[in-house]
Model the fold of this input.
Amino acid sequence: MADQINVPSILDSIENFDPKAMSLSDIPRILIAVMEVVEKVKGMSGIEKKTLVIEIVTEIVDDSDLAGYYENFILSMIPNLIDQLVEADKGHLKLNNKLNSGIMSMLSKLVCKCTKCTGCKKK
Done:
């Protein structure tokens, strides 16, 4: 199934992303982009979609400069990150309000990459 997903088009859809200069900070944006594409695939269970996302992200990391030193670290985090993103999307992730605002600000900057981002949603 992973061969039916156009990985280059996913990477092209990520704003301000250069696959040749991929860094650790790009992993959340890549993961979210892959999850959004796989979510649209019909006829797959949640577990199958999670497995597919892991396969695709593994392929992306393997083809990058991050393969090797960071690879085990990154790939060990992916399943848990997927679970946390799914819970957040369902509204089930509850954080301390002070902690929540700081984390959300940081995550929005990672995902958005807008120079003035504070969760701006591309104003």
Notes: Residues 2-92 form one domain. The radius of gyration is 15 Å. The chain has one domain: 2-92. The chain has a mean pLDDT of 77.
